[in-house]
Amino acid sequence: MKVPGVEISLATPVPAMPMPSHGRLSNSSKTPEQMELEYEANVAAERGDIMTPLPRDPRPQGMTFPGDAAAGVGMGNSSVGGGRNMQPEIVEAIRNLDAQALRLNNLTLEDRCQLTTQQENKPDDDTDYVVLRRPQKHHPFDRQCHSLYERRLYKGPKLHLWVGNGKKPSPSDDDDLKTFQRNLMDLKYPTVLPPNPQLKALLVFHKSDSICEVVTLACQRHQLDVTLVKSKEEALDTLQKSYATAQCYHLIIIDARSTKGLDAEHIARTIRHTHGHHLTTIIAVCKKSFFEKDDALIALLDAGVNRCIAETTNLAMCSVELKQILHSIIRPHNVMSTQQALYTALHRLKEVVLITDDLLRIQYANRATERLLNMRLDEIISKPLADIFVSDLSTISEQGKSIKEFDGILTVRRKNQEGIPMHVRVVPVACIGSAPTHLIFNFDIPGGGMDFIATLPQPKEAPRGSLHSVRRCSFDVRSIASDGLRRTSLAKLTSLPLEAPITKENCSADEARLIDKVLEFLKREGLYSPQMKEIRTDDPIATDLIGALLTGPSVYSSRRSSNDSIIRTGNSTRTAIVPAKMKANPIVMELLEESLSWDFDIFKLEEITDYHPLLYLGMEMFRRFDVFATLNIDENVCKAWLAVIEAHYHKSNTYHNSTHAADVMQATGAFITQLTNREMVMDRMDEATALIAAAAHDVDHPGRSSAFLSNSNNPLAILYNDLTVLENHHAAITFKLTLGDDKINIFKNLDKETYKSARSTIIDMILATEMTRHFEHLAKFVSVFGSEVEPRELVQSEEETSILMRRMLIKVADVSNPARPMQYCIEWARRIAEEYFMQTDEEKQRHLPIVMPMFDRATCSIPKSQIGFIEYIIQDMMHAWDSFIDMPQLITCMQINYSQWKKYDEQGVNTLADIMAKQPPVGNKPSNSK
Ligand SMILES: Nc1ncnc2c1ncn2[C@@H]1O[C@@H]2COP(=O)(O)O[C@H]2[C@H]1O
User: Fold this and answer.
1) Residues 129 and 167 grouped into a single domain
2) Angle between the 210-221 and 315-325 helix axes, to the nearest 10 degrees?
3) Distance 787 CA to ligand 1 centre (A)
4) How does residue 31 score in pLDDT terms, banded at 50, 70 and 90?
5) Beta strands, E only, 435-569
6) Which of 65, 688, 760, 894 could form a cystine bridge with 630, CB 3.0-4.6 A?
7) How far is 661 from 639, CA to CA, in rounded Å?
8) How confident is the model at residue 728, as a pLDDT?
9) Residues 136 and 275 in one domain
């Protein structure tokens, strides 16, 4: 089978070729050619998965094996036999080149050319040549070579590559050959390559003029698949579609010559913020005059453009420029993304892999290492290797300098445990130069059986992040759990005849008494439930508010009426309309660029999205935190989910509407970012569940409190027995809506276990927003993270610390409004007061118990209510959270707002009308941010 124009020839006679270890081609009845075709098919099939290593023959190098030659397994046809033996790796590498070259030429297996021996081209006896015949005039010579270079398949000092016309290489070709000499050693440690798809370029040019034409031609010359669009909207639309089908553009070239037709800076910035495009190469074509001063170019580069190139009508110049970009930007980007994938794979490997630097300090450890050592990553990284071994390591360190590998038994020290003898293999590798810069350790128990690690006692969840490393705050737990606090105890529980292993065995009567006392403590329910601070305020408004927020429903249960409910129950699905303009609203996109900053203007978003802030902000957060990938779900499902959740927030509520949900989600995003900055990394699933919980935490809120629902015999209060009524409802309806419609089921691609854990996290976070347990959550958080003792010592598992942290995160986000820039803080205070007033109005009208009598629109002092709210609920919590997360602007804003409320109070500015009269319109930038 010959392909016109392409021939791949071997300049050296090739002996029998060993097959891949899976030995799928051992059928001796096949012709060598059939076998080769099949071989290629296998190789190609295996290459389908980028992480699958190339097939390697595990047998010793430089040998042929009985049966190979007899079976006709050879590099070429039977005429190839004889001559000097080649190393099997080289032979196999050449086979891979064959496949690679074919792929680069877009040839199918059917078109595969026959390998022939070309003895006459062999320039000398010591050199093996692979001659690739140049099939056409503009054959991508360099592309093949570079691909070979990347694959590092040809490294032997004796093996030269030449891509040409099949004739004996000329002296200049010989120079090229030398460039591609490779060290045979590298064959042993092949580089895993990035995927090698057809490169795609998106050209964004306002009009098809001569410059656009030259850029298009240059792209085509380099075999790029070109798409031309004329506007930003078209560009974003194309990118979005390409992202959904995993056919991403590698290169985007934007016409930046004039801002009239296109705003290149804005386009670049938007693309950079679009999910999946952080490694896309963006090039701006600029006027030559731009290069005379730097401001315009720097603005473009700051917006995310990788390189600015000058407009030209000269095809050669443009082509060279493009080539440089392909080599210096696109390829490294490709490699980087592959490395990331490799890291992920390595991290999840069952085998224990640990990497040290040349001074034997641990640089990397995968999850299995954490399990083996029973330590968290942050306890392992940077440690001297000697700390985790009982054995003397002098053999390794001495060998690391001079000898290549170590293979032997060493005893590993598990945290808090005896040593475990392990079979350790050490491979030195060099990042720079040839002396080892790193050592890779691979552990095994003597005799194999890696499942052994799974049998070791483990922390409940794979440890991650470094929660324990939070700044210790000087928080005084007693300020919360003071004498005035009530503890609930269940007499029944304490009287149960509970016995535990620690009880009275081997101890004196005194010790037994002490243990009894401790047990009595521990058996109490609500160990951390200080529940309510004594409200030492003369202010009845604060007393009213705090009392209503922190007290359960029983207080008001005596005066129930049986009036109807205000909440729809049953199948109340609301039609969610995704705004048509969502994709391409530049004003919204511009605002969302600031979506992680603490002074983000949520009210402006509410206005410009026509009261769909949750949909827009939600999508932005999901994009920024990779939620689509984490849930393995299409963006459109998330979009539909957000739209449905938003539709189930009541627009008629002044406070508990979707703007509040978006605000809490925004704060959550800001906190996650700050946690990451502080290296207290949440894993991707924790981030996703936190954002989902934030978005849904008040869904279907009726604008009335739980106490109101209980007092009015609302069906929800009946359903939930007056306990955590609203929060239970928010959590339940979130899952009811999500699971009830496949089109919005963002969890549908999660496996059972992951879904179970995500559901539990989301429910726990939503329930944590209930204010009656405010002090309980705060006290627990402070006692664990504010203690001098390691959190690990205070809680049962890493998971428990993580739960405490997530609860506090959503709680702070939920009531962060008094710590927002003043203008927003005042607007939120207006909204919540208005909602309280409406509740009071309804309670009066329906003759229900009045939950907060002081919240009467005729008499209420807003400043007083806010002063009380900050003093009793917000202040301690913000300080605790700031100590943990280090966001001083929370405290600064809170203090400024507090002073302002005090001022209004002193001035007698009390009513909503008075306060609002003093405010600039919302949507203007606040003055006290940052
Ligand atoms: N600025 C504020 N002033 C008074 N109460 C508030 C303020 N912000 C939030 N809250 C209350 O705190 C509660 C937190 O949980 P919810 O969102 O269910 O309902 C919230 C309000 O009742």
Assistant:
1) yes
2) 50
3) 29
4) very low
5) 438-444
6) 688
7) 15
8) 97
9) no
Is 657 within any annotated ligand binding site? yes
| pLDDT (average), residues 238-264 | 84
The per-residue pLDDT for range 291-316, each reduced to its tens digit, is 998 888 999 999 899 999 999 999 99
User: To test the ligand 1 pocket, which listed residue (724, 869, 901) has its Cβ within 8 A of the most ligand atoms?
Assistant: 869
- Asked whether 814 lines ligand 1 (CB < 6 A), one says yes
146 marked as part of a ligand binding site = no
- The residue whose CA has the least distance to atom 8 of ligand 1 is 815
**Burial class of residue 525, CB neighbours in 10 A (0-12, 13-18, 19+):** exposed
Considering the domain boundaries, does residue 222 fall inside one?
Answer: yes
Whether residue 740 sits in one domain with residue 625: yes
Among 588, 580, 619, 618, CA closest to 604 = 588
List 203's β-bridge partners, or say none. 228, 253
Of the three residues 437, 458, 479, the one that is the final residue of a domain is 458
Q: Domain tally for the chain?
A: 6
Contacts (Cβ under 8 Å, ≥6 apart) of 356: 362, 363, 385, 438, 439, 441
ipTM over 0.95: yes
Ligand 1 centroid – CA 130 distance (Å): 75
3-state secondary structure of 199: coil
Dihedral angle sign, alpha carbons of residues 433, 435, 437, 440 = positive
Q: What is the DSSP letter of 361?
A: B
Q: What CATH number does residue 587 fall under? A: 1.10.1300.10
User: How large is the average pLDDT for residues 894-905?
Assistant: 95
- Ligand 1 center from residue 849 Cα (angstroms): 20
φ, ψ (nearest 5 deg) of residue 356: -115, 165
Q: How far is the CA of 809 from the CAs of 68, 415, 499, 672, in angstroms?
A: 65, 31, 37, 9
Does any domain span residue 84?
A: yes
96 & 239 share domain = no
Q: Is 539 annotated as a binding residue?
A: no
789 within some domain: no
Residue 678 has pLDDT above 70, yes or no: yes
Atom 6 (ligand 1) nearest CA: 832
Q: Coil, strand, or helix at residue 889?
A: helix
Q: Which of 549, 668, 709, 729 to mutate to test the pocket of ligand 1 (most atoms within 8 A of CB)?
A: 549
Among 148, 164, 188, which residue terminates a domain?
Answer: 188
Mean pLDDT of the chain: 71
Predicted confidence (pLDDT) per residue in 463-479, tens digit: 332 233 333 332 333 23
Under 8 Å between Cβ of 665 and 694: yes
Q: Does any ligand 1 atom lie closer than 6 A to the CB of residue 813? A: no
How much is the pTM?
0.49
User: How many whole angstroms from 803 Cα to the centroid of ligand 1?
Assistant: 22
Would 466 be classed as within a structural domain?
A: no
Name the least confident of 293-297, 388-392, 488-492, 915-919. 488-492
**How many CB atoms are located within 10 Å of the residue 395 CB?**
14
Give me the phi and psi of 242, to 5 degrees please. Answer: -65, -35
Which residue's alpha carbon is at the smallest distance from atom 9 of ligand 1? 815
Length of the chain, in residues: 930
> Parallel, antiparallel, or unpaired for β 438-444 and 419-429?
antiparallel
- Per-residue pLDDT of 809-852, as tens digits, reads 999 999 999 999 999 999 999 999 999 999 999 999 999 999 99
Question: Under a CB-based contact definition with an 8 Å cutoff, are residues 700 and 660 in contact?
Answer: no
378 annotated as ligand-binding: no
697 is in an annotated binding site: yes
To which residue do tokens 């991650």 refer? Answer: 464
The contacts of residue 736 (CB under 8 Å, 6+ apart) are: none
Q: How many CB atoms lie within 10 A of CB 48?
A: 7
In a mutational test of the pocket of ligand 1, which residue from 771, 854, 901 has the highest number of ligand atoms less than 8 Å from its CB?
771
pLDDT of 898 > 60? The answer is yes
3-state helix, strand, coil in the chain (%, to 5): 50, 10, 40
Whether residues 207 and 152 share a domain: the answer is no
Q: Domain range spanning residue 259?
A: 200-345
